[in-house]
Amino acid sequence: MACPPKTSCPSARLPGLPMLLRDFDYALPPELIAQEPALARDEARLLTLDRATGRIAHRHVSDLPEHLGPGDVLVVNDTRVIPARLFGVAESGRSVEVLLIRQAGEQLWDALVKPARTARIGQRLTLAGGHLTVEVVRLGTFGRRRLRLPPAVDLRAILDAYGIMPLPPYIKRSPGPPAPGAEEGLEHADGSGRGARHSALGTDRDRYQTVYAEVDGAVAAPTAGLHFTHGLLDRLRSRGVLVRRLTLHVGPGTFQPIRTEEISRHQMEAEWYQIPEQTAGAVRAAQAEGRRVVVVGTTSMRALEHAAQAGEVRAGSSEADVFIVPGFHFRVAGAFLTNFHLPRSTPLLLVSAFAGREAVQRAYAEAIARRYRFYSYGDAMLVL
């Protein structure tokens, strides 16, 4: 079994022994963590992995139509990332960073606050250059807080003007030109300009978003979908591929670290999703006729496979809390397009469940050797 450079191969586990997180670790040279998107979305490299033969090939995302054909159903996640990161000050005068996660009721939002110790119950946080003051009304674990917003506040307008796209912390680069209307927020958010380092807004407000993003609510991008252009989607349709959508609002559960060595002890956080009838019907018809369902991204995979747990995929909304690890029985997916994921992460476990742990280790080792770009703005892998 091939292992990534500087990583020792774990021995195969005997049946009945717990699955351990260290079996899904690998070493990645820091310079392979993509800091910028590809110049063109579909210029990203594409590693293809054939599950039946183990064969690995190297192409580009623009070659994707060669791997899909008439009758395939391509399912994408049309969630839209909101500029949900805000900067400001606590009552103590200390700078704070707030990432809004999801609405929890009228005037209530769940959020991640850093540093968490500045946000105790009853404390007020002044954000967005003084344009938004929130009150902490509930404490949670790992920096979670529930915040009460003022009545009749136009939160969308504040986020559009002052919010920062919630790029992952491993993207570290000098800021580019701010988006129109965001300059004041960057300059005055907390008096220090710290928000600018998180995002070159002129690029990220567009590129950390799929071209088909439509439904506001995500705090992270469904990154496998970032590679698609309208032209690529048209080429796929011209080959007879059915492109269908669902919505899963990507939340912190997708990137929440696994804090237990024994994987079965991890509790996957639920994420809201909705599957329209057009998508559910296309999936059911494909399954009945033996055609492939090609799933784009781990979030689309979680939504479809969660919906299928009770039988066939039906239209409607629910909360996906399924934790997909090796040994999982896939009911829907026939092929899978995904990015390269962090070691010891839930997305990597999902990919390993679909493609096989050893096959994924070999693919990642080859991707590292060939200098692929990793993580959110990186290259892609197609598992067939």
Summarize it:
This protein is α/β, with parallel strands linked by helices and 384 residues long.
Provide an overview of this structure.
With 384 residues, the chain is an alpha/beta fold. It has 2 domains: 21-78 and 211-383, QueA-like; 85-207, QueA-like (Thrombin, subunit H, Beta Barrel). Helices cover 21% and strands 24% of the residues. The strands form 3 sheets. A 9-stranded mixed sheet has the order 2-1-17-16-14-3-12-13-15. Strands 5-6-7-10-9-8 form a 6-stranded antiparallel beta barrel. Strand 1 (45-49) and strand 2 form a beta hairpin. Helix 8 (346-355) packs across helix 9 (357-369). The longest helix has 13 residues, at 277-289. Mean pLDDT is 88; it is low at 1-15 and 174-202.
Give descriptors for this structure.
single chain; 384 residues; alpha/beta; QueA-like; Thrombin, subunit H; six-stranded antiparallel barrel; 17 strands
Number of domains: 2
Number of helices: 9
Order of helices and strands: EEEEEEEEEEHHHEHEHEHEHEEHHE
What is the correct CATH architecture of the largest domain? 3-Layer(aba) Sandwich
The name CATH uses for the topology of the largest domain is: QueA-like
The CATH superfamily of the largest domain is identified as QueA-like
Helix content: 10-25%
The whole-number mean of residue pLDDT values reads 88
Ends distance: 20 Å
Give a quick account of the main beta sheet: strands, pairing sense, barrel closure: 9 strands, mixed
Rg over alpha carbons: 21 Å
Strand content: 15-25%
Pick out the low-confidence regions: 1-15, 174-202
Structural class: alpha/beta
Shape: globular
- Major sheet: order of its strands? 2-1-17-16-14-3-12-13-15
Q: What is the count of β-strands?
A: 17
Q: In CATH's first tier, which class of the largest domain applies?
A: Alpha Beta
